[in-house]
Amino acid sequence: MTSLPPSHSERIEGLLAKAEQLKIEGSYTDALVILENILLEDPRNVAALEEIADNELSREEFDRAFLAAEQAVTLEPESSIGHAVLGEIFMIRKEWELACEHLQIANKLLPSHPDTLRLLGWSLFRSGKTVEGIVTLERALNLDPDDSFIMCDLASAHMESGDAGKAKLLLDRAAAIDPLNETIREYREAAERMIA
């Protein structure tokens, strides 16, 4: 007995899964080839646009990531990935209010995602909402207590708020998790100088 060929949607789902695996492996360019081929067949495929945005963000191709995320959000206003990528790009551009706007939408659509909360917390902090930013970063850390990126951002916020002691404790934890991380080492040294 012969099996039937996969339906169009099953084939697209398989291609999206393959692209996701390639992204996880760091093969962004190979993933993008698959995703762009999906868009040639279906230019309104939001999942492919979201994945293109995420891959381009990882490659630091911010303009391409922005265009793909913007298109995903235009086609599907509830695209959490699209809003998260736009928020991160606005962060990179230091456009804090726009970053907050998109990251708050992403958080509403996909609540309690630690990385989204980390980005939102830092954006809130940088936009002048110091307490709300720190609280949001602490919430992110509670959800993922071993994430050294969250610890660094929270420590940096504490240092800028004048609490080098809290920062040092966080950075000591981060260093235990990621002892070779140069950024953590530099932040710890800065916190120690503030304490001294």
Explained architecture:
This protein has helices spanning 8-24, 28-41, 46-58, 62-75, 80-92, 96-109, 114-126, 130-143, 148-160, 164-177, 182-195. The protein has a domain at 14-111: Serine Threonine Protein Phosphatase 5, Tetratricopeptide repeat, CATH 1.25.40. The chain has eleven helices and no strands. Helices cover 78% and strands 0% of the residues. With 196 residues, it is an all-alpha fold.
User: Stretches where pLDDT falls below 50 for ≥5 residues?
Assistant: none
The proportion of strand residues reads under 5%
Largest sheet geometry: none
Radius of gyration: 19 Å
Report the end-to-end length measured between terminal Cα atoms.
77 Å
The CATH topology label of the domain at 14-111 is Serine Threonine Protein Phosphatase 5, Tetratricopeptide repeat
